[in-house]
Amino acid sequence: MTEPTAHDRPPPRLDWTPAALADPLPLAQALIQRVSVTPADDGALDVLQAALEALGFRCRRMPFSAPGTDPVDNLYARLNLDQTGAGPNLCFAGHTDVVPAGPGWACDPFAAQVVDGVLYGRGAADMKGAIAAFVAAVARYRVGLGGQAVSAGRGSLSLLITGDEEGPAVNGTKRMVETLAAEGERIDHCIVGEPSNPEAMGDMIKVGRRGSLNATLTVAGRQGHAAYPHLADNPIPRLMAMLGALTAEPLDAGSAQFDPSTLALTSVDVGNPAANVIPGQATARFNIRFNDRHDSASLIAHIRATCAAVQADLPGSFDVDVQVSGESFLTPPGVLLDLVANAAEAITGRRPELSTSGGTSDARFIKNMAPVVEFGLVNRTIHQVDECTPCADLVSLTEIYHRVLTNYLKD
Prior knowledge:
Layout: H1 18-21, H2 24-32, H3 44-54, E1 58-61, E2 75-80, E3 89-95, E4 114-115, E5 118-120, H4 128-144, E6 156-162, H5 173-182, E7 189-192, E8 204-206, E9 208-209, E10 211-220, E11 224-225, H6 235-247, E12 262-269, E13 277-278, E14 281-290, H7 296-311, E15 317-326, E16 329-330, H8 335-348, E17 353-355, H9 363-366, E18 372-374, E19 388-390, H10 391-408
Helix pairs in contact: 2-3, 2-4, 4-10, 6-7, 8-10
């Protein structure tokens, strides 16, 4: 199926009153109908901004670009419920960008169809549905106040929404957080709406994430004829020995809140099309997901020392290039975690497991600004063909978010 473009879809016509926005489904559908495959926005942030402004939020677009990257649009919105803005700021963070749909869908991946009570579409679970649920929760809060923009409650609500989470994550949340912090904007607590639940709503809250780094190990030798190996310096045995040394022992046995760190080889390549030539260079790539027993600096030192021990006094040389995606972090027990866990249990009847499993998320950038947890929809179909979420889950998530923000904003 050919993915539609922005020109194929008219702008959605929605009722932006708080009473209408209290239902998360129409907004979720309108967002899914925007073909916002990273880095394209396709009007997704326009749809969201219109809904938020109708609820009284002040919206600020934050586009960023950097050399060698695609420009990305982002949105920060804030609603001061105590008029002064002096109270605590509860932020919801997420992303409107999605991965490509790919072939094989049973329906149009950007039509946002509801079939037998299930909403289908790219981004339904990851994570346009969660954005719509939080907006609906705010709308319900407003409706409960008789539609007034200001309450007797304390604090503020904000949304930090990027269009660059599924891509390089260079011009998105990281840049937003840095810019807002430099300007003196304060975020006191943050919920990231990533799909955190493995099987059912209320299963899991992510309270931290492992760190991640990608390393490229290049071993240099001297090219030569395969019939005269003594006249060449074959880098392949040294590369294999280095990889063997790096993987011989586990990095650790885990920690109180984290599984053991892992090292996964992702590529070994010599770029050699000839059967009778010893290559002059051999390269391997690997990824390390690490827990709180390490930081990236200590792991880089470990990699270099291990490879140097193999190289020793042998001819040739090696080089290690490392790109760090993020450090590990853990959000300790506190107000935010209690609010989310209690709300999830009250609505679903399950006490969520506290987990640090999974890959990286934009929470790794936000944790430097505020305590952060991740709680959203069920993740069984994310990034898959026929991504979907039950409409009942959208309602449950809205109720959970509403309970969280209502309790947060109490005097």
